[in-house]
Write a structure and sequence with these properties.
Distance between the termini of chain A: 38 Å
EC number (chain A): 1.12.98.1
Shape of chain B: globular
Helix content of chain A: 40-55%
Largest sheet of chain A: 5 strands, parallel
Largest sheet of chain B: 8 strands, mixed
Order of helices and strands of chain B: EHHEEHHEHEHEEEHEEHEH
Radius of gyration of chain B: 19 Å
Enzyme class (chain A): oxidoreductase
Protein name (chain A): Coenzyme F420 hydrogenase subunit gamma
Distance between the termini of chain B: 19 Å
Shape of chain A: globular
Strand order of the largest sheet of chain A: 2-1-3-5-7
Number of strands of chain B: 11
Keywords (chain A): Oxidoreductase
Oligomer: heterodimer
Family (chain A): Belongs to the FrhG family.
Bound molecules: flavin-adenine dinucleotide, iron/sulfur cluster
Amino acid sequence: MDVEKKVEKTKEEMPVVEKITVGHVHLSGCTGCLVSFADNYEGLFKILDDYADLVYALTLADVRHIPEMDVALVEGSVCLQDKSSVEEIKEAREKAKVVVALGGCAAYGNITRFCRGGQWNQPQMESYVPIAELIDVDLYIPGCAPTPQQIRNVCIMAYLLLKGNDEQKELAGAYLKPLMDLAQRGDEACGCDLMYDVINQGLCMGCGSCAAACPVRAISMEYGKPNIDRDLCIKCGACYAQCPRSFFNFDVMNEFEGISELIKGVME
Amino acid sequence: MVLGNYKSVVAARSTDNEILKGAQDGGIVTQLFAYALEEGIIDGAIVAGPSDEPWKPEPVIATTKAELLAARGTKYTLSPNIALLKEATRSYGLDRIGIVGTPCQMQAVRKAQLYPIGMRDVPDKIALAIGIFCMENFPYQSLEAMVEDHCNVKLESVKKLDIGKGKFWAYTERGAVAQIPLKVTHKYEQPGCHVCLDYVSNLADVSTGSVGAPDGWSTVFVRTQNGENAWGKAIAAGCFETKPIEEVKPGLDLVTKLATEKITKNQKTLEARATFGVGKGLRNPYI
Ligand SMILES: Cc1cc2nc3c(=O)[nH]c(=O)nc-3n(C[C@H](O)[C@H](O)[C@H](O)COP(=O)(O)OP(=O)(O)OC[C@H]3O[C@@H](n4cnc5c(N)ncnc54)[C@H](O)[C@@H]3O)c2cc1C
Ligand code: SF4
Ligand code: SF4
Ligand code: SF4
């Protein structure tokens, strides 16, 4: 009796009540995306203390079934021959206000694009699709692994979008828009995107961002233009997303100093 | 807004004769990095260093003044400096990165900071981003054609290249000067430059160029808190001679005029792209 009272009392004294609820849904992923989230170190605690309750994450908490949540961070692609995976992604869509494809696998299939079955002891598990193949996805965080800082920024902005004042909502909306546009653009990614949508479009200016972003060094800059070793490419989508000529939203970028300060401020 | 946000703008040049000797203009980039390196404001800078082909830059991470000196001067061709941005925080182990680049490269730096998608740990490690003014750039083979064919001098013999007063200039080691009207060079421009909406590196911490200031001097915009801190300390340490921009010719009016021309022209290109085909257009990265 006494103990229960104590617990209730502590709960009431929690300083922040207006947190958003976040869940981590693990499909055919490697947990590297979650590790990236955790690699915000004390920043992760700050987020969990002040801005977000982690209501679901099989790796970290003992909640067995997908609950209602504001934001679902979905990691991994979906195996069509695994019934529970297919059910889980559908359930995540039903239970979450915002579905985020976290990382290259959820967004674009990534390494699971190369799956073709034939391995013990489920040789029939051969078809893997990015989550947008089965459900509507609101926002992409590409990358293999996605960066801790990008996940942090999305968490902060999602919080501001759902709980902030009008000005903060507007900023968060503007910030998140290109990541939402990426989700609308499609779920196929490859180093070839740099050809199709940047160089072939007359937009490449030779900055080298794509080469820096590539996790497997598949891109080298030759005479100032990206050359893609397509057999090295794992189809993560980082190069195109990082390219300043994929999206460049001046309204947000012009405020880079203020936004960087804001992010630093809320994380302190 | 064509000149971006800034806290102050002056005409300036380095007080270090060694730097000035091989600098393009007032030696602002080399001097400011050299000072920042010495003071620990940065622990390395990504610059356009030399390669084994003449006037073809190779991005390098300079951690000594000698390496900064070796990168002086404008190479009118692509130097993909951002390609080293993540590596600088990895095998090079930098915590405070300096980087120089054209306006589009400053945009790339800020995008990497705000949307670090393949750039883990980069956002917090940009200590000093120096932008240079840029009207357009050229593929290496274009530069070859302009210098070797149109100017009729070997790239190997060139000491300095410059764009100014409506002309493209090549100065050789042995004192010859060749020049061609800029209109001859237009067809050689990098196509991606024609959608560029920034002339004076609006997103840099400090940006600098030759336009506006007399020969041997530079126009310098100090834009951010980071920029102001570094610039203020460098001035206090006697690194630069400065003059109020109002007192030099041709001054900010010309900078504003050229910036407006570039942006207006390229806005038109963007608009034309929207209806480039028949009922179809080309992609616009800005919307
Ligand atoms: C393609 C191009 C176009 C330019 N157009 C204009 C213009 O229209 N109007 C104007 O006023 N100024 C222009 N500039 C800038 C100007 O030529 C000088 O670079 C600038 O004034 C710096 O001079 P400085 O003496 O301070 O630099 P320095 O001390 O000589 O150092 C120059 C620095 O620039 C870096 N650099 C050289 N070439 C490149 C490159 N291709 N890409 C990235 N970094 C490079 C070098 O690594 C070095 O660190 C242009 C520069 C470039 C590269
Ligand atoms: S990141 Fe830079 S170099 Fe790579 S495709 Fe985009 S504009 Fe070209
Ligand atoms: S080229 Fe590299 S960054 Fe681009 S999709 Fe392939 S693996 Fe990813
Ligand atoms: S004109 Fe623009 S896109 Fe071209 S090199 Fe200069 S800054 Fe980059």
